[in-house]
Amino acid sequence: MPLLFNQSPLMAAWLVAALLLLTWATAMLAGGLPRGSWRSAAQALLLSLPIMLVLFVMMPRLPEPLWSMPRQQPAASSGLGEDMEPGSISKLILNREPAFSAVFDGPPPRQDQLYWRVMLLDAFDGRRWRRAAEERVSPLAVTGGRELAYSLTLRADQGRLPALEMPRGAAPGSHLASGGLLRQDRSQEDLARYPLVSMVDARVTEPLSAGRRGFYLQLPPGNARSRSLAWQLRQRGGGETGFVREALQYLRLGGFRYTLQPPLLGEQPVDAFLFGARQGFCEHYASAFAFLARAAGMPARVVIGYQGGEYNPLGRFWLVRSSDAHAWVEVWLADQRQWLRVDPTSVVSPNRLEQGAEQSLPALRGADFAGAALPPQWLRRWRQQWQAADFAWQQWVVGYDAARQRGLFRRLGLGDDVDGGSVVRGLIIGMALALLPLAWWWRRRPRQPPLAEGWMRLRQRVAQRGVAVSPALGPIELLKAAQGLPREDFARLQRLVKEYVELRYRQQQADAGRERRWLRQARRWK
User: Fold this and answer.
1) Would residue 190 show up in a list of annotated catalytic residues for this protein?
2) 3-state DSSP helix/strand/coil percent for the chain, to nearest 5?
3) Residue 269's CB: how many other CB atoms inside 10 A?
4) Following DSSP, what letter does each residue of 458-493 receive, concatenated?
5) Most buried of 2, 293, 312, 516, CB within 10 angstroms?
6) Nearest residue to 36 via CA among 49, 24, 48, 18
7) 122, 282, 284, 390: which one is catalytic?
8) Is 343 among the residues known to form the active site?
9) Catalytic annotation, pick one of 122, 271, 324, 326
10) pLDDT digits 0-9 by tens, 11-69
11) Is the peptide bond before 58 cis (omega within 30 degrees of 0)?
């Protein structure tokens, strides 16, 4: 029952410990001694482990995860909302909860190339960016670039799936939405694995109608100084790519600072940021740059998602946390008919892309910053080991679904599908192997000496014939008590008891062969 709410390795370890305690208590109630009962309980669990593994692997998996419960309210595990305003992303930097993990089939891109797109925000009211309605689309035309195959393991955030640009297609159970975003076919909060393929550094051509172009140029009134600056930069650059270059140069040389605690902005937030505060987090720079681009006559939109991640060399996977949340801009180049990714934060704080937000913000390395200090350096290795163990657990235990089972059955040669025949074949082979440790233990288990075992069996057989037999009864007393048995049975019993007395009390040295023969005769007496 606890696994319905928590499927972490710690919960599994707690359940194993609880099961061991229950088994030990059962052995104690059966009359065992404390130390021996511990050994018996641990031995019983170890011998049952192979059988449990065979049943776990071979029994057909349900299409939906078995260990799941519907949530009361669908909540975003990452914290990314439906809109963006100053401070909406910077507060996520304090949340180090994992958002998803990624495994690349080949060499991954550099950390500064890992832009995980989640949301497009294209409507601006002067302070807040929000998204317009999304719709299902077909894959966009892609030319050039290199193919990058990878898989994500995550609990989708309200049906939203992160992906590198540009996805060549949708993973099973998902579809492409407008802007090259990935969405689930139906929203669910269960842990799932999504194999994806993206075209990195590719040219994506996308038609932009006059109506959509006008929408991406809309700006509310206000921020007059920023509008004037935008046209100055456009004239200085002489074109679209020139404007992008000049705007980035303005941010690079304008005394701007990347900080987690910027001052509050007034009624004209873009003017206050560009000409007053000059301090902000990624959402400040993305919002200001998108405003400048639209004011300069270039369609623009804000993209929010994640940038980078933490690579674990032990597990060979990337762990992306909520603290890796990021915002950047895409501007439309009319002559090339494509969206160009622009990250204004990269020119103000290059370390943000190369080392992550934690290393680029001095405040996060201070021990007194809202309790958000980074762990000591000596704990890094231990943390990576724990992350690798947790990743393996999530991949191969919690994430062992119907698709993974089909793949395993194919690799084991049991068949291309999980049907009755393949399951029966797997159970027969698996159980035969799982019972080998039990058979080995049975042959090597501690046994009573032949004389003790045979004498115990004789007393049990006599008691079954209706004779009152007590544990303290000796050989002579046993024969006296059994005199009422039929003559032939009593004669055989008398010979067995006589030989038992000779072997037990009269012979000088033990004769193992003779004792085993006597034991076989005692077993046959009925």
Assistant:
1) no
2) 45, 20, 35
3) 25
4) HHHHHHHTT----TT--HHHHHHHTTTS-HHHHHHH
5) 293
6) 24
7) 282
8) yes
9) 326
10) 778 888 888 888 888 877 876 667 677 888 888 888 888 888 888 888 887 655 444 44
11) no
